[in-house]
Amino acid sequence: MPLTPLSPFLLEENIFRLLDKDWMLITAGEPGDFNTMTASWGGFGILWNKPVAYVVVRPTRYTYLFMERSALFTLSFLTAKYRKALNICGTLSGRDVDKVGKAGLTPFTLESGVTGFTEARMIMECKKLYYQDIDPDRFIDKKLDSNYPLADYHRMYIGEILTVFKND
Known about the structure:
The protein is α+β, with helices and mostly antiparallel strands. It has four helices and ten strands; from the N terminus they run βαββββαβααββββ. The protein has helices at residues 15-22, 62-69, 83-91, 99-103; strands at 3-6, 24-30, 33-39, 42-47, 50-57, 72-77, 107-109, 115-117, 122-133, 155-167. Strands 1, 2, 3, 4, 5, 6, 9 and 10 form an eight-stranded antiparallel sheet that branches. A hairpin with a 5-residue loop joins β7 and β8 (115-117).
């Protein structure tokens, strides 16, 4: 797959569409031992003078274990053609099934050792900088707690976006 590296500062993507409409795959782990999950919550910005992405993962998700032990992770964005694959990766657990295989996705290893997918139109390679657990006592709008009927509050990870790869 011909990947073109790009500075995150040169992106012209609509970040709200990327997350809310297109979704993404959060992937962490090592070649042959990784997990991925579909996500539509997160964001992008500048923090600590670095371009960053923040993502949230519930501790009940299998991907959480991989995020905890990995220094790097990727965010892969696919076209609408792969909506079924994204649904599979968002509803099945890698604990129980080879969801990447079931979704028909083709993993490959980036030079840094993290996993991307050949079907992705864009991949962000991120280095973990920080994490924090969502604390329901800090909700100013108490209605937000309705997102957590099982009290399985997300852990937020902030990662420096090292490189963006566009699929030519």
